[in-house]
Amino acid sequence: MSFETVIKEVHAMCKLEHSNVVRYYTSWVEPPTFGISEESSSQQPDVPHLYIQMELCERSIEDLLREDGKLDKKTYWKIVMGIMQGLEYLHGKGFIHGDLLPCNVFLLHNGEAKLGDFGLAKSFDAEHEMKDLKAAKDITVEMLRAIDPNLKNDLNKTVKKIF
Fold first, then answer.
1. CATH topology for the 3-162 domain
2. CA distance readout (Å), 70 to 61, 80, 115, 144
3. Helix H segments across the chain?
4. Residue range 37-81, pLDDT digits in tens
5. What distances in angstroms separate CA 65 from CA 3, 94, 109, one per listed residue?
6. Per DSSP, what are the bridge partners of residue 27?
7. Torsion over CA of 155, 158, 160 and 163, rounded to 10 degrees?
C-alpha cells in the first residue's frame, strides 16, 4: 500500500464518527528510520512512517467465522444491521467504502459491528450518485431476504454481494 493511499485512509477516517464505524483518534508522521531492526529493514528507505491511533476492536468477521464457524441468528442479524447502519452513515457523509470484506468489518466485545480500513474509500457527489445508491439499496434489501443465517459460507457471500 502506498503512502498516499494510507494518507487517503486517514483523511477519510478523520471525518467519520458513528457507532458502526471504527473511531479515529489521532495520527502523526515520523521521519524515515531503517536498519534499526529486522522488521524495519524491509521497509523502503526515505519513506516517512504514519502512525494512526484508532479504536481497538476485538476481531473481524473473518476471525469470528474462522474461530466459531457458525453464527446464531441473533448474532448474525446484529452484525448485518451494524454493517447496514455503518454504510448508511458513510453514504450520508458522501463516502463509499470500496473494500468491504469480512476482514474489514470489525467486532467489539459486545458483538457490535464496525466498518474499518478506508484505504479504498471514495467521496461522491450526492446529487449525481443518489440514483445509483437508491438502486443499490433496493438490491441489498432483496439480497438480505434470501440469506440463510445458519451457514458460514452464506455470511461470506452476503458480505461480498452486498458490498
1. Transferase(Phosphotransferase); domain 1 (1.10.510)
2. 11, 15, 21, 18
3. 3-14, 38-41, 61-68, 73-92, 126-145, 152-162
4. 555 545 566 778 888 888 999 899 889 888 888 788 898 899 989
5. 31, 31, 15
6. 52
7. -130
In order of 50, 51, 93, 111, 150, the CA distances from 60 in angstroms are 23, 21, 24, 10, 18
Q: In sequence order, what are the beta bridge partners of 60? A: 106
CB within 8 A of 28, min separation 6: which ones? 50, 51
Please name the amino acid found at residue 38: E
Question: Which residue, chain included where needed, has cell 479504536?
Answer: 55
- As beta bridge partners, residue 51 has 28
Per-residue model confidence (pLDDT) at position 157: 46
Is residue 150 within 8 Å of 125, Cβ to Cβ? no
Instruction: Please answer whether residues 147 and 156 qualify as being in contact, where contact means their C-beta atoms are separated by less than 8 angstroms.
Output: no
pLDDT in tens, 118-143: 765 555 544 434 443 444 444 344 44
Tell me which residues are annotated as active site: 99
Report residue 140 as a C-alpha cell.
441489498
Residue 21 DSSP symbol:
B
